[in-house]
């Protein structure tokens, strides 16, 4: 009995290990070939298995990937959720179990509808179904497109495909490569190894492609202030003005910068509570020919709360006023952190569902760029930077930079903030725009339009990052078209694959 049970479990157990390896493809480890090897091994593990075994093997792979890849989420639940450790571990397990559903769905669909071990299964159906499941994970319940395999390639030759089709296109190429390798191993068709080799060499060749051009006439001097404020003390009333003055003093030392940038919710107060201070800061910025951009919390006349970005000083908005239409308001809110689904049911159950600042309203999907000292910046607050379509649609012909303000202090000294920076770099590469990332305690950095970090300061230190970045002109194919050509290809692949599958089965019956 035990032997039989072990025999049934050995593939899922192996899949847990293989899925866990996937984390090494991402920051801070960045062993990018693992992102090809891991799905290739998964395809081998489900080969010639029942639909049920394929489902549990894929689910186990997802458990391994997310248990290791997003373990950092537990830090925020444990430190700020106000729950016993056993309860926080239970919630973390629920999240991991939910995210693993999508890899289980992938393996079940593949074995259910494309069972035959042929090129259609490995080179067409598997990549298409993987992208469909990734898309679902990035959409259901506002989405969580973290750890899409394509992000792991930001420093690999495959990164050069990002301006063409975005991170999803890179993921597609990874799955085609993985399918080719697994097909070659299972069928002893070794020439198929040439497919990933060709894809990699094409990526090398694309390094010489110039989709956008730097504009040397538009060079901007930046000062990014990393306050390193203790998250546990930040919102205590007695800490309000010490925190505000900390940012003010560091700003005063950097008035020679064109734009001074504070992180997300740098001001531990609602804007309506400190209009006199902000008016004075606005006047000081104008007097010094500089602009200040900061994250701030807002409340409108209807009592709705917003996580916002405010521009002060030398801007196009005139003198400071409490005009909500001149702010950027975060659209993609973090579930449970900034809003609670089914809140009438969940809030009474436990403190984790009643965190401070968990009742925000969302801004529009597309909003005007933030303008500071003549520069146009497409904003994304914290979690929003992982939604490439939202960022893409907010980048206009006037946009100089992508601006993302964040506060990853919730996640301590973990791999989470490093993964977050990796994702942000992909946005710069996809859209051909330099990226500015200002955070409370790191990673605070600036990238060029290819997503390469040109300036960065250490985490967990109070520092000011001084940098110069150059605006770009032109448009990448991804910025122009988005992902619809890719998903049209996915749809056609599934239709063609299904038709050929039916044709092959008919020949087998004959």
TrEMBL record:
Pathway: Protein modification; lipoprotein biosynthesis (N-acyl transfer). Residues 225-471 form the CN hydrolase domain. The keyword Cell membrane applies. It holds the Pfam family LNT_N. NCBIfam families: lnt. PANTHER family: APOLIPOPROTEIN N-ACYLTRANSFERASE (PTHR38686:SF1). HAMAP family: Lnt. This is Apolipoprotein N-acyltransferase. It comes from Vibrio zhanjiangensis. The lineage of its organism: Bacteria, Pseudomonadati, Pseudomonadota, Gammaproteobacteria, Vibrionales.
